[in-house]
Amino acid sequence: ERHLHKALAIDPKFQEARLTLSAVYIQTERYPEAIEEAQILIDDPTFPKPWEPLSNKGWALYKLGRRAEAREALAAAIEYNERYWHAQLNLGILDAEEGKRIDAIERFDRVVELAGPLGSAEANYRIAEIYISLGNRKRAMEHLVAAGSQRPSGPWGKRSEDTLKRLR
């Protein structure tokens, strides 16, 4: 964080440093600061990938409990780039928490199509959670196995293994 601030002191228009700082603030649960940094990039017409700060802003708003604003920012990210799986995943999480299970599964399926192993593993795990809540153990287990095989040593692979053990 200190190095990012130094970089921005030298060049306040250093966009990648600002985007990374927004992500650091999310990781350290400093959501208002994350929103502030993301908004600077969103408002900058020269920033070539507005879907990234929009997704950061959406996640930070979600973590602050501002769901409607979060949904708006994440939807805007997808309008810019429908293949940006981070925003799709975050909207799926929001859908699942709001009880919109079909919408959530559709979003998570999209993430599985678009993302690499890390994103696919999380999406499969989250699909499994929905199937567990619906009482469909067979479908849940299929997605848990998929999540575990995509990133066996990653956090979602480990969670999947633990959940599979409980289901068996």
Task: Summarize the structure in words.
It is a single chain. The chain has 168 residues and is an all-alpha fold. 79% of the residues lie in helices and 0% in strands. It has 10 helices and no strands. It has helices at 2-10, 15-27, 31-42, 51-63, 67-80, 85-97, 101-114, 117-133, 137-150, 155-167. Helix 2 packs parallel to helix 4. The mean pLDDT is 96.
Structural class: mainly alpha
- Looking at how many chains there are and whether they match, the oligomeric state comes to single chain
Helices and strands, in order, run as: HHHHHHHHHH
| Mean pLDDT level | 96
Query: What percent of residues are in strands?
Result: under 5%
**Number of DSSP strands?**
0
**Treating each run of at least 4 consecutive H or I residues as one helix, how many helices?**
10
Q: What is the radius of gyration computed over CA atoms, rounded to a whole number of angstroms?
A: 17 Å
Gross morphology? elongated
| Spans of at least 5 consecutive residues with low confidence | none
User: Major sheet, described briefly?
Assistant: none
Estimate percent helicity.
over 70%
Q: Between the first and last Cα atoms, what is the distance in angstroms?
A: 44 Å
